[in-house]
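Researcher: Last one for today. Full complex below.
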Amino acid sequence: MDLLINFAYIVASILFIFGIKMLGSADTARRGNQISSLGMLIAVVAVLLTSGMNYTWIIAGLAIGAVIGAVTAKRVQMTGMPELVALFNGFGGLASLLVGWAEYAARPEPSAETGAAVILAILIGGITFTGSLIAYLKLSGKMGGNATLFGGQKALNALIALAIVGLGFVFVTTHAPWALYALIALSLLLGVLAVIPIGGGDMPVVIAILNSFSGLAASAAGFVIQNNVLIVAGCLVGASGLILSIIMCKAMNRTLGNVLFGSFGAATGNTGQAVEGEMKAATAEDAYYVLEAAQSVVFVPGYGMAVAQAQHAVKELAQILESNGAEVRFAIHPVAGRMPGHMNVLLAEADVPYEQLAEMDDVNPIMSTVDVAIVIGANDVVNPAAVEDESSPIYGMPIIKVYEAKTVYALKRGQGAGFSGLVNTLFFRENTRMLYGDAKDTITTLVTQFKD
Amino acid sequence: MDLLINFAYIVASILFIFGIKMLGSADTARRGNQISSLGMLIAVVAVLLTSGMNYTWIIAGLAIGAVIGAVTAKRVQMTGMPELVALFNGFGGLASLLVGWAEYAARPEPSAETGAAVILAILIGGITFTGSLIAYLKLSGKMGGNATLFGGQKALNALIALAIVGLGFVFVTTHAPWALYALIALSLLLGVLAVIPIGGGDMPVVIAILNSFSGLAASAAGFVIQNNVLIVAGCLVGASGLILSIIMCKAMNRTLGNVLFGSFGAATGNTGQAVEGEMKAATAEDAYYVLEAAQSVVFVPGYGMAVAQAQHAVKELAQILESNGAEVRFAIHPVAGRMPGHMNVLLAEADVPYEQLAEMDDVNPIMSTVDVAIVIGANDVVNPAAVEDESSPIYGMPIIKVYEAKTVYALKRGQGAGFSGLVNTLFFRENTRMLYGDAKDTITTLVTQFKD
Amino acid sequence: MVLLLFIFVLAGFLGFELIQRVPSQLHTPLMSGSNAISGITIVGAILASGAIEGQMGIILGFIALILATVNVVGGYMVTDRMLAMFHSKKGDK
Amino acid sequence: MVLLLFIFVLAGFLGFELIQRVPSQLHTPLMSGSNAISGITIVGAILASGAIEGQMGIILGFIALILATVNVVGGYMVTDRMLAMFHSKKGDK
Amino acid sequence: MKIFAPKETDSDETRAALDPIGTKKLSDLGTNVLIESGTGESSGHSDEDYRQAGAEIADRNTALAEADVIVRVRKPPAEEVTKLKKGAIHISFLDPFNEADLIESFANAGTTAISLEMLPRTTLAQKMDALSSQANLAGYASVILAASRMKTILPMMMTPAGTISPAKFFILGIGVAGLQAIATAKRLGARVTAFDVRPEALEQAESLGAKALRIDLGETKSEGGYAKEMTPEQIKIQIDAQAKVCSQSDVVITTAKVFGRKPPVLIKKGAIDQMQNGSFIVDLAAEGGGNVEGVVAGEEITTDNGVTIIGLTNYEGLVPQNATQVYSSNITNMVEHFLDEESKTFPIDLEDELLKGCVITHDGKIVHERFTS
Amino acid sequence: MKIFAPKETDSDETRAALDPIGTKKLSDLGTNVLIESGTGESSGHSDEDYRQAGAEIADRNTALAEADVIVRVRKPPAEEVTKLKKGAIHISFLDPFNEADLIESFANAGTTAISLEMLPRTTLAQKMDALSSQANLAGYASVILAASRMKTILPMMMTPAGTISPAKFFILGIGVAGLQAIATAKRLGARVTAFDVRPEALEQAESLGAKALRIDLGETKSEGGYAKEMTPEQIKIQIDAQAKVCSQSDVVITTAKVFGRKPPVLIKKGAIDQMQNGSFIVDLAAEGGGNVEGVVAGEEITTDNGVTIIGLTNYEGLVPQNATQVYSSNITNMVEHFLDEESKTFPIDLEDELLKGCVITHDGKIVHERFTS
Ligand SMILES: NC(=O)c1ccc[n+]([C@@H]2O[C@H](COP(=O)([O-])OP(=O)(O)OC[C@H]3O[C@@H](n4cnc5c(N)ncnc54)[C@H](OP(=O)(O)O)[C@@H]3O)[C@@H](O)[C@H]2O)c1
Ligand SMILES: NC(=O)c1ccc[n+]([C@@H]2O[C@H](COP(=O)([O-])OP(=O)(O)OC[C@H]3O[C@@H](n4cnc5c(N)ncnc54)[C@H](OP(=O)(O)O)[C@@H]3O)[C@@H](O)[C@H]2O)c1
Ligand SMILES: NC(=O)c1ccc[n+]([C@@H]2O[C@H](COP(=O)([O-])OP(=O)(O)OC[C@H]3O[C@@H](n4cnc5c(N)ncnc54)[C@H](O)[C@@H]3O)[C@@H](O)[C@H]2O)c1
Ligand SMILES: NC(=O)c1ccc[n+]([C@@H]2O[C@H](COP(=O)([O-])OP(=O)(O)OC[C@H]3O[C@@H](n4cnc5c(N)ncnc54)[C@H](O)[C@@H]3O)[C@@H](O)[C@H]2O)c1
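Model: Here's the assembly. Have a good evening.
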């Protein structure tokens, strides 16, 4: 029977491995999740086969937990999912803490190794729990999303860390319950303190980290009860969660350290003028996923396309998008570029069919139905100030109203202004994402994404 | 001490993991190999710390083996390396076989599990050993490289497999030595039989597979002596060797099954005319590595470039190659394409600088100094028959002598002929590789390779 | 214990290698899905609440079990909902 | 034994994941390098020749040790030579 | 409001101030458009086309006296200014720096004279910017003209009968016309080198695939989109560097104008002497005096060493239909921009940025600051 | 061996049979090149240029009588054939299908007449293929000619003053000339539609970015690179489909020739009547009778509905320098190909694939199979 159980554990682990791998790619993600849940089922069934179990409590616990979990999961609004994940994650952490504690309660004189494992389970589980709670509160708006800072925070954290090490040593050597309780308290506190200073915008990364932690906590619990499926699954989650959080940081153009300990709050573009909102950078990869699903795409080329000589790449991207089922148009502003017809020359060179070229007046009325507008090195010709800001020197100039599109990607090298030298509020809008870099490179990267 | 040894094993395993990972990328490969050798050193030192060892034999064995290994490795010619690897690999397999056998000799009444492990170690080790030997003989030319086939081979193999299963069962249940000896003999025989029918050209794949086997053999030996570093390292090698052989097959446009059991011998292109040599397909990835190292590259565009509208992609590749330090030229044959100046129109459209365009007469004299000639959908204009085959209708026409270049990549969709309808012997030359597919796609893939 | 450590190390590496380039749209589902996996501590909780002696242990185990089950069941279901949405969006076009 | 199997499975997956896209130029060195690693059986051979009782076992172990050492030492050295060559070629440009 | 487009008096002028599309747009805006018979003849539009677009074919003298707004391409003959009714608005190119008398007579007649070349070149004004719209076509036409006159083709061709090398073009002055000339010559496959004193213009030339000739001239400035005049030393350095490029070029196209001044002479006799037999110089600044020594406005001359110097005054007139289309559109955009919707009048608000720049006379006075002193 | 290039007698002919580069090459091969004074005048080469390349400036009559090989572009005046020495080789276009008398006189004079248009169009012969080399330039020149005559520009331009739509070109016949016309018009940004009876030609047009007009004509064949004649029904279907495209086009360029026959009339009066005022038809087949109903060879006519039909006979002559360069190169390549290195003679081997195709008369007889009957 034991052999069977262990074998089941191996199968479960393999299913987890496949599950995680498949979750990493869009086509297989859903199947991956199902496979990993199958693994979980197998693991649970296997452990239930352990001889000498008292099923009353188990069945009760499983039932209660399942109902709560299922109901919340069903009920939650799409928008509420991220915070729910945080909450669940916290539960997982707490569960690991409790498992460690329970083991100690049952066998209060653990070996040094087991003792260390207990501490780790409690510590990591505790941090995960309260950290996740804070993340949940911040995300759900029940707590201010802003970074909460107070003086001496760092010193305090250091102090706590020191205390934990000390208490851990005491516990391993003396098995004193008070040390354990103190550890539990401190770890819970540490979780709060660690997450509070981080801004709401960075919460996804924090959750990814906490998720990694909850995996490690499970792994530690596994060491406590000497169960290898816990160790494997926990460690898998621990490692992949860490990688995932690093990937997420990269996608935000930040480092992990910067997110966790860096200067907090929203970074505003150094435009020299006060504009509401912030310029939000995105990666070509993000853009790829949005473009992949887009039904209608409008390219708005400007002088930057000419400078980057990106026309051929743009043509290729347009072709790919078309064959992907999207309707593609090029909206040509009459003064885009530096001479009349500048964009025409370039697009004709790249053999963009004339049918795809649209005049400003034809494209503006339908702009609100456009899924994605890609602004390629254009600036003045898409500056909403021309319509909105009476004090602007270009007020009254007709522009291509890309800001009405559902999503706008603006390709620029940096924070440079256009011919008129004006700040462009488009770049600060909610629905605009900046793709920084030479336009040709950016487009080529996008093309590559589609080909992979 | 045991803890220390085990810890060392873990470290060694980690080093192996890193080593293999780093071996997979050109920049880190050498360091990777060194790291993995460090892992090996640690593992060996660790095992030497095992208490109660008789060091006489060990030191003698190590010394003898090290001297032999080092001397052969130093002495061997660069060209002889692949077969040497095969030989070494065979030794590894035999060693695993012997370890399994020795364990049985020492403790002749193994448990069922250990017994199975012993059988596996012997079986896989034996196959690896003789298989590698045959591969070595074939590669070093001491045995005909051709596939050696005889009737009933498959039936014989099946028979042996059956016998092995039977003997294995006998051995596990009765521990009879004769069963073991029979198993050893059969496994050795099977190795020979499995490799003999495979052609010399496919030997690299065979070696990769045998390498994977020797890893598995080590792993099996690990199960026999219950040593986890053996299991881990062996299994790593087993899995990565398998993947590697699959990758190698892909690079040859074959499947693994096809290599191992498929129709043997050289596949000739179905050109309808008898031409010496064969058309050898390559992948863009292969081409990438050659291009990456090339100092001078000549593009030879033809009508196929026009059909594929590949000019922009070609221009981009040329730019990349230039910035990579290569000298890039476009050799324009006067009748390439379908109208005079056809190539000029296209390349001008893609803005290829006129300085890079070279006339046939200017480029032919230096062709033998060119590292790579890339023939993009050209056919007649590079057909050596015009210079060599007096009976050819195009005999006497001047051509671009790409065949004099060190390496030629010919981009075509398939086996289609050019305007003149003639077979082109260029494609069958030793230094020519075909990159099949639409020229634009192929070039774009190459560009992507450079960007990654 | 050493073997467990071995397993731990290998699993860690495997976790690293598995997640290579994840499209950003999948970040959240992936996080959510692996969160569900981290609910594997449910196995520990089951053992604690079913096989451990002592009242304290059982109570702790019981709470742990409820929490872990919420994590597992809720986690998988939420992930599935997310991915279903994603799928249908892809299916659209 | 179960744990060993666990380790085996994990290592197998890890081996698969590690080798993803290997440039064809590296195929041979990679093969050669992992061949050297498969000489890990040297550890087994050492144990066999140094710690096993019985003449037969020791002799077999001794031969195994020699062979495995050849594999390990020769394997690493050949691989290194290959890679050194490759490197200098890359360094050229 | 009556808007009148008389037939151009210059017999070389192929353009018209309004085309049927513009006519229609103005009619739709609620104005009455009067067209002299034959106005669109040389740009491909018949009276009937205009009539269908809503215009009335009018007698010239009557209409001149009646119209509230007179639009035309070229400056009016002096005698016609007096025929205008008081308060009438006259929109056209006026060449005000060289036409003091004409301006005087506009003021005396109590009319408002709008000089299109004086329109400030802000981003906002581009839709009315006739200098740009015409220069653009002139740049295109100059290259086609050269191509049709050359004994050789522009693109490179590697053929079984040998290689034909690409023609070499040198574009001097990378404004609107220069850029379009670059684009057109590049399209046809010529090798194009370009030069301008404004450094940012060099980048623009490169964005069209031309080779920029970079001459170190020390400091140069630009103001409001126009080049400033250079020092004599700067001109010297530039001239030498250019002479070298010219001697290697098959076609040289010059477009350098300086706002309100005579265009600089960039190609001196010495440079022309070194040019090849059969080569061409196309001077787009010929009307104002030319960038080329010896150019004769409106004519084509061939030097002793076989260099043809073309000095048309109206390159855009070579493509009259499109030139009329865009000019008409500029005019229409201007009227639309300033039209008072209610009263259907064209109020002259001298506080307005744009009008301040281009209104020369108003209410019996010369009001433009550059001409009042 | 003396090779003589006389000045062309047709006053419209701007090309020459040899240019200085060809002259040099022939001299280097060890032959004596004689050039009549003024031969290169209209293609941009002076007598001095030839002299420096190694030629001797010779008197026409003397040289005609002396030369072993006479090279020229156009067929000779009948009276000059008799002046040639017996056994002399005469290389030029001959239009042999329409010049039975001329051929007769070549045969009578005992001279070898090589007709360049009869050269087999194998891959090997391309370096001497003057039909291709000239058609290529004709294709280019026809587009530049049209562009310089049009009232509009070719490319699309979206400008602040409105959008100028691209000119529409329709190329009929996608041989060498048609392809180059497509390429040139595309380069300038026109929308190009193209048609040919040979289906493979449509793919070639597409490889240059044109839209291929696909008309289902049933079976059509091509032979040796030339189109075969079509059935009357096929011509009807084709003509209707084309008429529609013509009516939407600004410029129609026709290049359809059929080997040894009168070119098919592809554009009938009905189609021309539907075309727009101001549009152009450029007929590259005008010399042989034309693809366009009513075209007059060598002239330009304008129809009542304002369609200009250009029927030049020598489009390549519009770029005489390059046309001469490639023609000269074809001639030189031919001489080099057949030259006996030792004896420096041009032996006529009628077994040779190429000579068999293009030698019309030899040794006092008409030897070409198509003209013997
Ligand atoms: N069409 C005409 O005839 C004409 C003539 C003269 C002036 N203008 C004026 O020019 C302007 C045209 O507007 P526009 O929107 O086309 O251009 P723009 O407003 O000048 O903006 C161009 C933008 O492209 C970006 N850029 C430059 N190089 C790039 C590269 N390699 N990759 C990516 N981005 C690059 C620049 O930002 P970064 O530096 O941050 O990359 C810049 O913001 C108008 O103001 C118009 O009035 C037009
Ligand atoms: N230049 C002229 O004026 C002129 C005029 C008429 C005829 N020709 C003749 O045309 C020939 C020109 O020689 P060439 O070498 O340029 O061309 P070619 O000999 O006709 O060969 C073209 C090759 O391109 C390949 N191809 C076609 N589409 C492709 C695509 N999308 N991607 C990749 N490959 C593609 C075809 O092979 P797959 O089908 O296997 O892909 C074919 O073998 C000469 O024989 C010449 O005499 C020239
Ligand atoms: N605000 C706008 O949106 C707008 C509209 C139209 C034009 N512009 C800009 O105005 C500028 C001028 O346009 P334009 O074509 O009417 O100018 P222009 O006709 O006055 O001059 C043509 C060019 O000649 C150059 N030049 C002057 N002296 C020279 C010399 N000595 N050597 C070489 N070059 C010399 C000028 O720099 C200019 O580029 C351009 O930069 C154009 O982009 C801006
Ligand atoms: N062997 C070689 O390498 C070589 C050299 C030169 C030309 N060629 C080939 O020879 C072919 C003809 O060349 P060309 O330009 O001298 O041909 P051409 O001048 O004889 O004819 C021009 C074109 O008109 C087309 N045409 C004839 N009747 C037509 C009709 N009724 N409707 C529409 N189109 C019609 C022909 O198909 C041809 O494409 C081309 O395919 C060219 O590629 C081959």
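The domain at 284-451 of chain B is CATH 3.40.50.1220 (Rossmann fold). Chain B has three domains: 1-75, 78-268, 284-451.
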